[in-house]
Amino acid sequence: MLAPGSTIGILGGGQLGRMLAMAAAQLGYRCHIYAPESHSVAAEVSAEFTQATWDDATALATFASACDVITYEFENVPVGPLATLDQTKLAPAPSALEIAQDRLREKEFVTALGGQPAPFAPVMAQEDLAVAVAQIGAPGILKTRRDGYDGKGQWRINGAQDLPEITIPDSGLIYEGFVDFTCEFSVIMARGGDGEVCFWDSAHNTHKDGILARSTLPAPAIVGEQVQQARALTQKIAQELGYVGVLTVEFFATNDGPIFNEMAPRVHNSGHWTIEGAHISQFENHIRAISGAPLGDTTSVAANIVMENLIGESALDLAGHLSDPGAHVHLYGKGAARAGRKMGHITCVR
Predict the structure, then answer these.
(1) Cβ atoms 315, 344 nearer than 8 A
(2) How far apart are CA 310 and CA 144, in angstroms?
(3) Are the beta carbons of 310 and 345 closer than 8 angstroms?
(4) Which helix or strand (DSSP H or E) is residue 38 part of?
(5) Peptide bond into 117 cis (omega under 30)
(6) Beta strand pairing status for 69-72 and 7-11?
């Protein structure tokens, strides 16, 4: 177990890194942020900040030498440069990033473990798209294999009339059939280096314009009926990867059981409610896991919990948000508000 005063390196400088650093400080650890952006909201609450590109081998090596363990706050950290670092310091292992960064590889990986994703097909050329749509049907969603989040890098295909409008990049795309689902939920699990695991309650996630808008507990009954099967798949994923830290897997609850949507090898927006709504938050348990400490109690502390994202200018009405005496307001310290930008969140615990 890392001693108090040890340094935890975090690759990425956004709000997830900010909340990880705050949890780490509570346990007596220092955090060192590495990010290419000059303004890092995570660095504002951390002991050190290295601003450098992901491919700056010298800066990355210097950063790594100053850290006792290194983790990630988002899954699109380039994997290539990490190969030069001491792999024993990285938690989770970069193999989790490699799989999560490629939607096709991710779905093939989960299918091999017995999971059920939406019907999918690789699209490497224009003729592949026509074949995929014919096989899977329309409407469907065409997605970039890499990058893209919060609804970015996605196109709805309503039928053959949409196909000529799409240009296939060299990296290829993936076509997914629509899923007839009742609701969306996520399984958030922490796994220690010794294999110990724990789960938080699964919230009902609702999205707007491809961005998570709200996570609510308790979730509909169908989530409770399917959560054990979803947890079993999540634990299989973690065991296969030798995972250490918090792992999030998103699911659709359907009449045919839980359908895998995607995995995130990190703490997750749908788990922000755990800061006030659980005995130990996802952020603290991630720090505990990667530092070799025992995991904490994930039990929810209230019967009704709602986490709402503050997106765009909705974050500007601070006085209004604080007028609810039961609201826990988290603003991330970002710059100008704009449409689709996550500026903060509010959690209400009743």
Answers:
(1) yes
(2) 27
(3) yes
(4) none
(5) no
(6) parallel
DSSP calls for 148-181: --TTTTEEEE-SGGGGGG----TT-EEEEE----
Are the beta carbons of 62 and 50 closer than 8 angstroms? yes
For residue 34, give both structure tokens. Answer: 């590495």
The contacts of residue 18 (CB under 8 Å, 6+ apart) are: 41, 42, 44, 45, 332, 333
- Locus of tokens 């949890």: 23
Mapped onto helix, strand or coil, the DSSP state of residue 53 is: coil
DSSP category for residue 45: G
The per-residue DSSP string of 88-103 comes to: GGBSS-HHHHHHHT-H
Q: Quick one: DSSP state of residue 271?
A: G
Q: What is the SS3 assignment for 316?
A: helix
Residues 163-200 have pLDDT tens digits of 767 778 888 999 999 999 999 999 999 999 999 999 99
How many residues would you count in the chain? 350
Which DSSP helix (H) or strand (E) runs through 205?
Answer: strand 204-208
Instruction: Give the residue among 247, 239, 249, 248 at the shortest CA–CA distance from 195.
Output: 239
pLDDT tens-place string over residues 36-93? 999 999 999 999 999 999 999 999 999 999 999 999 999 999 999 999 999 999 999 9
For residue 143, the one-letter residue type is: K
Cis status of the peptide bond prior to 218, with omega within 30 of 0? yes
Cα within 13 Å of Cα(310), Cβ side: 23
Q: Is the peptide bond before 139 cis (omega within 30 degrees of 0)?
A: yes
Strand-strand pairing, 154-157 and 183-191: unpaired
What is the rounded (10 degree) CA torsion for 159, 148, 186, 129?
30
Start-to-end CA span in the chain (Å): 36
Element (H, E) at 267: none
Torsion of CA 120, 125, 129, 135, to 10 degrees: -60
173 Cβ contact partners less than 8 Å away, ≥ 6 residues apart = 122, 123, 124, 129, 142, 143, 144, 145, 166
